[in-house]
Design a protein that fits this description.
By secondary structure, this protein is of the alpha/beta class. The protein has 2 domains: 355 residues, Alkaline Phosphatase, subunit A; 194 residues, no CATH class. 37% of the residues lie in helices and 15% in strands. The strands form 6 sheets. An 8-stranded mixed sheet has the order 6-5-7-1-8-18-2-19, with helices on both faces. α9 packs antiparallel against α10. It is globular. It starts with 6 loop residues before the first strand and ends in a 5-residue tail after the last helix.
């Protein structure tokens, strides 16, 4: 194994061949085009819910979420039906860069989601969007950010484009996205040339953000796409700038193996919405509180009061005042969030519910949920099977087609010690024809809704993306030891980590779910380098970094801007 073997990995969050394929053929993305012409490429299957926290954690570990334990950017609380935001310290299993460090290799990591707090590695880490800030202690080693700022200018972690969109300033949002891409490229090329590395990885997240907010300008179903505006090519502009950065990094990488990948794909949203909790209520599996009658109507008033007061406090109070309040009343935020998160459900009369903005359903299981009503075993199976049968029978009122596509049980998709925390039912939208909102209140019984143009635009300016995640992202490989076949098939995001380890001559943990993508690797390398495996890569009980209230607010605002939470 040559000591000079290196691997460069470039992540383009949410990238899809549906967009970049035509642009490459038209010559607009020359660096990606050359990679694919000289090397190998194929669609990369994401994790079951196409969720960035879940998908990037699966890339980092080579394992399914049932083993690493990350299903979303938040997890259920054990003492309520509320949630808490998570970060890398909640992940189980050793990371790719930890395995490399233990093998004496050097790793440099920039902006990979779910990498905060940064691990101590043989190299450096600048965390991704789960980092609440960019101070000296937010990176490893401490002091790295000061060095970057001195030599290449300000590093932009998050450009705050959700605020730009809500303020009616999409032009500023696009400018900030392009600035972020340029700053990311500048940081990466500086560190590539000034630090030693065997693995160098950087993730561009502007691609995902611009797709969430600007897809409506290229969606033929939307009136915004009918007239050419300054935003008609917003997504294209971001990809062109990313492609320029890819070209610069490939030049710096020399004869390294180069991998370009995404955590999931993307596509247009839809004006059709299904409120799953309302549907569960209509089917008799969930009971909403009668907030208008309870306590003389005070229940509904209390919710509105808390909701509006909470929003007013967020907007009007200076940051320092909010920090002092949250320090004085540390449980205040938890109580407010619990009231606002699925607040109108009568849990002791509920058998199933939906929590996140994904098509997934939880059985309200005794022993797992605090007020679980369904006993594990036979009762659980009966309830779950009944819900699946009702989902299969659900039809679109416009077309008569099934609303749900493939439907899975938890056990079909996940395995490992944390699989019990997964949703009990996961399903796909048939032809992506619906989006999901959980709905925590029973003030409206309609579970299917088709938004008109004006209502759709209003909701998008708040937190409903016009571009959404899809199941298949991209994989491309070129450079040293890559490019045996032009097209690779049936590859999964779990496969990237073991492939990188193999290319760098590091043993692959036997409990990884991924496989080495042999079809992408040159035959000579395969013949000369046998695969070594080692025992489980379970990490040694690392501590959990619990976000304080102010840090959680930063993360919450970012996730709202991406449509992960309402």
């Amino acid at each position: 194994m040559s000591d000079k073997q290196k691997v460069l990995v470039i992540g383009i969050d949410g990238a899809t061949f549906d967009l970049i394929g035509p642009w490459i053929r038209e010559g607009h993305l020359p660096n990606l085009g050359r990679m694919m012409k000289k090397g190998t490429s194929g669609e990369l299957q994401s994790t079951p819910l196409s969720n960035s926290a879940q998908a990037w954690s699966s890339f980092i570990t080579g394992k399914n979420p049932g083993k690493h334990g990350i299903y979303d950017f938040y997890e259920p609380r054990s003492d309520s039906y509320g949630v808490r935001f998570i970060n890398a310290s909640y992940r189980k299993g050793k990371s790719l860069w930890k395995l490399l460090s233990e093998a004496g290799r050097k790793a440099g990591v920039i902006n990979v989601p779910i990498t905060y707090p940064p691990e101590t590695v043989n190299g450096f880490i600048i965390p991704g969007l789960d980092s609440p800030g960019m101070g000296p202690d937010f990176v490893y080693p401490p002091g790295l950010m000061e060095e970057l700022t001195e030599h290449v200018g300000q590093y932009i972690l998050e450009p705050g484009i959700w605020g730009n969109i809500r303020q009616g300033k999409p032009d500023l949002a696009l400018q900030n996205l392009l600035k972020m891409v340029k700053a990311r490229t500048a940081a990466a090329t500086y560190l590539m040339t000034h630090k030693e590395w065997d693995l160098f990885m950087v993730v561009y997240t502007a691609s995902d953000k611009v797709q969430h907010h600007f897809w409506k300008y290229i969606d033929p179903d939307r009136p915004e796409s009918k007239v050419k505006t300054a935003y008609s090519d917003a997504i294209f502009q971001v990809y062109v700038e990313i492609d320029r950065g890819i070209g610069e990094m490939i030049k710096q990488a020399g004869d390294a193996s180069v991998i370009v990948m995404s955590d999931h794909g993307a596509g247009p949203s839809t004006r059709k919405t299904m409120y799953i909790n309302r549907w569960l209520s209509a089917e008799g599996f969930l009971t909403f509180k009668d907030v208008h009658k309870s306590a003389g109507g005070f229940g509904h008033f209390k919710y509105l009061l808390v909701d509006r007061t909470n929003n007013w406090l967020k907007k009007m109070l200076p940051r320092g005042v909010k920090e002092r309040l949250l320090r004085l009343f540390p449980r205040l935020r938890d109580r407010v969030e619990s009231m606002l998160f699925l607040p109108g459900i009568e849990w002791k009369k509920t058998a199933a519910y939906s929590r996140e903005n994904h098509p997934a359903i939880y059985i309200n299981t005794n022993g797992r949920e605090i007020d679980g009503t369904v006993s594990p075993g036979e009762d659980y199976n009966k309830v779950r099977n009944r819900i699946i049968e009702r989902l299969k029978a659900l039809r679109c009122p416009d077309t008569g087609e099934p609303i749900a596509g493939r439907i899975y049980t938890r056990e079909e998709l996940f395995n490992g010690p944390d699989s019990m925390r997964a949703p009990d039912i996961i399903f796909e939208w048939n032809k992506y024809q619906y989006v999901h909102r959980p709905s925590g209140r029973g003030n409206n019984k309609d579970f299917l809704e088709i938004l008109k143009d004006d209502d759709l635009l209003k909701s998008e300016n708040y937190n409903r993306p016009s571009g959404i995640h899809r199941d298949y992202g991209i994989f491309a490989g070129s450079g040293k030891n890559l490019g045996k076949t032009r097209t690779v098939e049936n590859i999964n995001i779990y496969d990237i980590a073991p492939t990188i380890l193999y290319l760098l001559g590091v043993p692959v943990p036997e409990d990884m779910d991924g496989r080495i993508i042999e079809d992408a690797i040159d035959d000579d390398y395969l013949k000369q380098n046998s695969l070594e495996k080692i025992s489980s890569s379970v990490s040694d009980g690392q501590y959990q970094h619990v976000f304080d209230a102010d840090e959680a607010k930063v993360i919450e605002d970012r996730l709202k801007g991406l449509g992960y939470i309402d």
